[in-house]
Amino acid sequence: MHTDTPRYGAGAVPAIRVNNLTKSFDDFVAVDGISFTIESGEIFGLLGPNGAGKTTTISMLSTMLTPTSGTATVNGHDIVTDEDGVRKSIGIVFQDQSLDEELTAYENMDFHGRLYRIPGEVRRKRIDELLTLVGLEDRKDDLVKTYSGGMRRRLEIARGLLHEPKVLFLDEPTLGLDPQTRNHLWEYIEQLNNEKGITIILTTHYMEEADRLCDRVAIIDHGTIVALDTAENLKSSIGGDVVTIASPNPDAVINLLAAPWVSGIEEHDGSVTVRLQDADRHIPGIVTAIHQNGIDITSLSVRKPTLEDVFLHYTGRTIREETGSRKAMQMFRWAGRR
Ligand SMILES: Nc1ncnc2c1ncn2[C@@H]1O[C@H](COP(=O)(O)OP(=O)(O)OP(=O)(O)O)[C@@H](O)[C@H]1O
Ligand SMILES: [Mg+2]
Questions:
Q1: What DSSP state is assigned to residue 53?
Q2: Is 50 a pocket residue for ligand 1 (Cβ < 6 Å)?
Q3: Does the entry feature the keyword Repressor, yes or no (predicted)?
Q4: What 8-state DSSP symbol labels residue 199?
Q5: Among 22, 23, 55, 169, which residue has the most ligand 1 atoms within 8 Å of its CB, making it the best to mutate?
Q6: Do 35 and 112 share a domain, yes or no?
Q7: What digits encode the pLDDT tens for the residues 29-85?
Q8: Beta carbon of 174 within 6 Å of any ligand 1 atom
């Protein structure tokens, strides 16, 4: 996430502007009137469970699907009336792998470069530069079928950047990768955003990914955006940090701490849970007050809320439950087809 003075600002054309965008498949509404603006230079996340409408949104913005209603522009180009303008300014990495396994990494890149009519000399130079950027220069002449999942993902990202897009769409960039590979990819994505100033819009159902990478996160559920802000603001919007105090006398703790600056307080199994903003600043005062009132406590811990808490707050469900059951259903269907 870049933190220097914004490249974006007043007067600049937003990278993406979405207004009441809707997509229906027959009478099923997959994306239901979403609106948002992404400034140039942002890393923007669409976070939501399986079936939320993330891929459908990205597909409309990249002109692969025609919206049922609503409008959107990418780099100032209308997604319906100026498809070419949109296509020239974007790169896409699909959720499903789209590399040619029987070609080398270099050949996959070269093929893509020819499609975009990038002249030979420039093409060769950029391919080398990008394969170096994603750490694949040593393996560029190996067939893709010998690559690991993480290497394939990095190659797809490099390929998506070959025609120097201003906006890069990444649909579930780290799906199914192990934590270490995921971390590496996050670093590449940050580097791209920092060094090349590319606007990145990514979809994910990994809370940690949205939290770690994105300047702003839109939480999408059943085709609508239920919350949109920085991860930090989303987390504070649900009532702040979580402080847990264990005590033989929880009632006394509650009587002492129930104050206007506390956004929630409850007892469970001898532990008192307090929600409040900026807990770190309040802890010394809380501890002093507890001691001054002669109340015993056995432990005190502070936990920052996660985006999982945020998702739960806005949708009443956990993202994992949903993901698990849908994935199981998909596997079941897949098995049935064989
Ligand atoms: N071509 C289609 N025809 C009918 N229904 C579709 C089509 N494409 C998507 N859908 C439905 O629209 C909803 C949103 O799908 P979408 O692929 O956008 O979800 P997603 O958020 O990307 O989910 P995932 O995390 O599984 O990738 C789902 O219920 C899906 O079944
Ligand atoms: Mg998807």
A1: S
A2: yes
A3: no
A4: E
A5: 55
A6: yes
A7: 999 999 999 999 999 999 999 999 999 999 999 999 999 999 999 999 999 999 999
A8: no
